Amino acid sequence: MSIDYVYDVKLPDEYNSEMKYPVIFALHGLGSNEQDMLGLLSELSTDFIVIGIRGHLPQGSGFAYFHIKSIGNPIREHFDQSMQQLEQFIEMATTQYAIDPARRYLLGFSQGAVLSMCLALTMGERIKGIVALNGYIPTFVKDEYWIQSVTDLSVFISHGEHDPIFPKQLGDNNHEFFRQLSHHVTYTTYPSAHGVSLENQQDFIRWIRQDAAAQIPGKGDLQ
């Protein structure tokens, strides 16, 4: 079954279709929607193309990309389908908008962080970097998925030290897993629960600006 995602695109103020811009594909948490993530990234929308993707499954008053059997245990059929369809969406959007394929970033919170990390593992060098906020990597992905080389993947992982849903140990595990695969891993914890603090937001905005700017020889930070 094909999925037609509802999504919202924020283009840079001086958008020029003849140029190539870095892009952030933003994935929300369980029961939320694309607008929640766009709010976190509003500061970057002057220089980046920002695309918030809504999960296709209803979840309470919001949406989900996959349903779960229990905490940390996705329904495999839903998960596999979302992985395939999100990869196709990323490739489609890259042809539809003035996106630089060498500066494609995934950013997600909770369920969105799960998918951001897993998509990076399966898409490999086709993704430049990820920001994973309070997520985990399902065991079946590590054991059964075909994981690509992510040696040059830029990784920003953060986790709440008091997260009652996904314990901090999951963030530690994410860090250790990616540290063995990539040379460019940043891991930070915050005295927060299952959410994104202002300090966390400021840190990943600074990080993604610097990383995207570093891909352009002779350029400084994006302002």
Automatic annotation (TrEMBL):
Species: Paenibacillus baimaensis
Identification of the protein by name: Alpha/beta hydrolase-fold protein
PANTHER family xrefs: LYSOPHOSPHOLIPASE-LIKE PROTEIN 1, LYSOPHOSPHOLIPASE-RELATED
Keyword Hydrolase: yes
Keywords: Hydrolase
Gene Ontology terms for molecular function: hydrolase activity
Phospholipase/carboxylesterase/thioesterase domain: residues covered: 22-206
Keyword Hydrolase appears in the UniProt entry: yes
Family of this protein: Belongs to the AB hydrolase superfamily. AB hydrolase 2 family.
